[in-house]
């Protein structure tokens, strides 16, 4: 190990000792002064504590980055097929509520954004998916009520004058249970229908990898058992959904729909979801919902 470190130092230290100040400051902020000096300045890769922290930070940043697009394939499948078959609104509603609570809890505790940033990004995508599921189920008007309710709840939890930190801790404990409960309707829906319908394989397997990585980053950076237990439970149920995805892969009820781009029909559906066509959008999407899909899996 010492020989390897000496070799790396001779190659890397001329670079790490002359990093641009903004880059050096960012790295020092992420790792802390001691670990920055140990890993970057001194190239001490045998420092196990700092190496674990660096890996955790890298995973956290990667998770946040991937979360910006993790649900996009699911959105495209919904828009292009104009069908919500195989997707449980209750599952998305519970998960979004859980994410909203966790987001407010992390923000008010001032935890590092790299440890929870994906919660905010995925919650936004979940809201869009939930609205589409309601629309394609003939309940388009309920989407506005759903969004308004989330906005009101978010404000109430963010305001210290409305929700105390003690109460928010209880809500965070409940968020873990909500996160677990949010997976059960989806698991049951897949089992009952004998297929995954319009569920996106990309989203499912990325969720599985992300929840596993979050267990590691939480152990390293967040001294909060409530958050850790929630991620462990979430990973377990994500693994069940991933197993169902594999088991029902070739099932006739696992709809094969192009999800790499937004097709003309999907563009029209997107405008309807935004309210461009008023209340008629719910009727239109409802009629499309019953048409069989002949598209290939994206």
Automatic annotation (TrEMBL):
| Gene3D superfamilies attached to this UniProt entry | 1.20.1280.290
Q: Which domain of life is it from?
A: Eukaryota
Its keywords, alphabetically, are: Membrane, Repeat, Transmembrane, Transmembrane helix, Transport
Locate the compositionally biased regions of type Polar residues: 277-291
Q: Name one Pfam family in it.
A: PQ-loop
What GO cellular component term, any one, is given?
membrane
Subcellular localization is given as: Membrane
User: What coarse category fits the chief subcellular location reported for this protein?
Assistant: membrane
Record region (Disordered): 258-298
Q: Which InterPro entries match?
A: MannP-dilichol_defect-1, PQ-loop_rpt
In the record, the note on similarity to other proteins reads: Belongs to the MPDU1 (TC 2.A.43.3) family.
- This one is known as Mannose-P-dolichol utilization defect 1 protein homolog
Q: Which organism is it from?
A: Elasticomyces elasticus
């Amino acid at each position: 190990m010492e020989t390897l470190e000496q070799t790396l130092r001779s190659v890397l230290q001329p670079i790490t000792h002359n990093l641009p100040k903004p880059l050096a400051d960012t790295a020092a902020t992420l790792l802390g002064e001691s670990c920055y000096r140990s890993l970057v300045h001194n190239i001490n890769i045998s420092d196990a504590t700092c190496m674990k922290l660096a890996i955790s930070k890298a995973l956290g940043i990667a998770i946040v980055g991937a979360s910006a697009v993790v649900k996009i394939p699911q959105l495209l499948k919904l828009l292009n097929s104009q069908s919500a078959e195989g997707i449980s609104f209750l599952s998305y509603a519970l998960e979004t509520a859980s994410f909203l609570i966790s987001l407010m809890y992390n923000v008010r505790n001032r935890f590092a954004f790299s440890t929870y940033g994906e919660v905010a990004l995925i919650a936004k995508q979940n809201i869009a998916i939930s609205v589409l599921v309601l629309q394609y189920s003939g309940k388009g008007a309920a989407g506005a009520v759903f969004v308004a309710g989330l906005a009101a709840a978010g404000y109430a939890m963010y305001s210290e004058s409305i929700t105390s930190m003690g109460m928010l801790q209880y809500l965070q404990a409940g968020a873990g249970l909500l996160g677990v409960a949010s997976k059960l309707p989806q698991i049951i829906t897949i089992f009952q229908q004998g297929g995954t319908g319009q569920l996106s394989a990309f989203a499912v397997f990325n969720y599985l990898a992300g929840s596993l990585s979050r267990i590691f980053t939480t152990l390293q950076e967040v001294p909060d058992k409530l958050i850790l237990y929630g991620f462990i439970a979430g990973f377990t149920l994500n693994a069940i959904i991933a197993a169902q995805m594999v088991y029902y892969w070739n099932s006739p009820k696992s709809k094969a729909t192009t999800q790499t781009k937004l097709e003309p029909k999907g563009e029209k559906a997107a405008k309807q979801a935004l309210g461009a066509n008023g209340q008629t959008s719910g009727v239109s999407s409802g009629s499309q919902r019953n048409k069989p899909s002949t598209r290939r899996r994206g």
